[in-house]
Design goal:
Elements: H1 5-18, H2 34-49, E1 53-56, E2 62-66, E3 74-81, H3 94-109, E4 114-121, H4 134-139, H5 158-164, E5 181-189, H6 194-197, E6 202-208, E7 210-219, E8 223-224, H7 236-252, E9 259-261, E10 265-268, E11 274-275, E12 278-287, H8 290-310, E13 314-323, E14 326-327, H9 330-342, E15 349-352, H10 357-361, E16 367-372, H11 388-407
Parallel strand pairs: 3-4, 3-5, 5-16, 6-15
Antiparallel strand pairs: 1-2, 2-4, 6-14, 6-16, 7-12, 7-13, 8-11, 9-12, 10-12
The structure holds zinc ion.
Zinc ion is lined by residues 81, 92-93, 124, 188.
Length: 411
């Protein structure tokens, strides 16, 4: 315990919610499972106790609206997700909901002329249906009804999962966020090591990085490891090794604008005494700047072809996914930065290497995102944690942000 009762209470609440799980002894909470209903039960009571109007939309998002007495007050939307990966930590997602409720408590105490809608998004991780952001897609008006046919591992369709939870898939359109909302703010743990390395409690997210995923195959010739002279080999694995180092070098030389990973290698025939005849590799490239990423893809694929030609191999590439970067709203992010500074903390801007509900919400509303330091950079793991002082810092910045949103944000 610390002398920060609000932060201690938030940490205790997140840890208590982590006990609402599909599995005994570890936290696993997939979309619209009974564990989600248990979390809804808790959050609904919290919202009602704060005087909020509570609804559950057809995508399973639990939504609490607090309205001040002033008529025509602007509405700010806040929130994050309450689903988890298997064997998760206690703070990824849930923290953003509990922090938002704490900020409503404080807005109420200060009679802030601002309406606040807190959304506990039902799905962000993509675990049950292999489709992430089901909750925020519906709120942002980006839910394609074709997705209702997706099935989980037990053969239950997304449509039936919604029905089985007592909701009506025909009413998904009604989940769309209200037109009077002026913006969306998500508070989330960083899930990475940057803030900790710089000993900073908070980070201001500039955008969610864009991503390209490719598969690349070098084809050479499998042959005897003892009888084939070095000069007569067409070794696909040696070519792959040369290219993997080129990928790492390109990212190292990008001055922090690009991260690049070869995480998967499959050699054939994969035997100790046989020269590899073919090797299949993955490439994952991410950058906040689409042009940097696109140029890196072209450069690295050219490099693979050059390596293959020199070694008398062939090289095939297949692009599996290309997703542009999503910048956060400039004005709202500037207000967030001002708030962090006014609260007495360093303004550290950084991109998010992971996807978040904020990425989907940004397609509908001006969106900003605040990161809280992740001790050890650990996330998606039971050891995930937060520091009470950091939560207090985020609350102080959040309170100033809400005051500014009530008064100074242009519509
Ligand atoms: Zn998350």
């Amino acid at each position: 315990m610390t002398d920060l009762p609000r932060a201690d209470r938030i940490i205790a609440e997140c840890r208590m919610l982590a006990g609402m799980s599909e599995e005994h002894g570890r936290t696993t909470r997939r979309f619209l499972t009974p564990a989600v209903a248990a979390v809804h039960g808790h959050l609904r009571n919290r919202m009602l106790a704060l005087g909020m109007t509570v609804t559950l939309d057809a995508a399973g998002n639990l939504r609490g609206l607090w309205r001040p007495d002033e008529a025509g007050a602007r509405r700010l939307v806040m929130g994050s997700h309450i689903d988890t990966v298997p064997d998760a930590g206690a703070f990824d997602g849930v923290l953003g909901v509990v922090m938002a409720l704490e900020l409503v408590t404080s807005a109420k105490a200060n009679s802030l002329p601002l309406a606040v809608e807190v959304i506990a998004f039902s799905e962000e991780e993509g675990v049950r249906f292999g489709l992430p952001f089901i909750g925020s897609r519906a709120v942002a008006g980006r839910f394609d009804s074709k997705l209702l046919a997706l099935e989980d591992a037990e053969g239950i369709s997304l449509e039936d999962a919604i029905r089985n939870f007592g909701l009506d898939p025909a009413r998904l359109d009604e989940a769309l966020v209200d037109d009077e909302a002026i913006g969306f703010l998500e508070i989330h743990i960083e899930q990475g090591p940057v803030l900790e390395a710089e000993e900073l409690p908070l980070g201001i997210v500039t955008g969610i990085v864009g991503q390209t995923r490719c598969e690349l195959t070098f084809n050479g010739h499998a042959n005897h490891a003892g009888t084939t002279p070095m000069s007569l080999r067409r070794d696909a694995l040696a070519a792959a090794a040369e290219w993997i180092l080129a990928v790492e070098t390109a990212a190292n030389e990008s001055e922090g604008t690009l991260v690049a990973t070869v995480g998967k290698v499959k050699a054939e025939p994969n035997a100790g005494n046989v020269i590899a005849g073919s090797v299949r590799l993955s490439l994952d490239l991410r950058s906040e700047r689409d042009q940097v990423r696109e140029e890196a893809v072209v450069g690295l694929l050219d490099r693979a072809n050059a390596i293959a030609a020199r070694r008398k191999l062939t090289c095939h590439t297949k692009t599996q996914m290309q997703q542009p970067a999503v910048p956060m709203d400039e004005q709202l992010t500037a207000v967030l930065a001002e708030s962090v500074e006014a609260a007495g903390f360093t303004v550290r801007r950084l991109p998010s290497g992971a996807g978040h509900d904020a990425m989907v919400m940004a397609t509908r509303l001006p969106t900003a995102m605040l990161f809280v330091r992740s001790p050890g950079g650990i996330s998606h793991h039971p050891d995930e944690s937060v520091i009470a002082e950091d939560l207090e810092a985020a609350l102080a910045a959040g309170e100033l942000f809400l005051s500014r949103a009530a008064g100074t944000l242009k519509l």
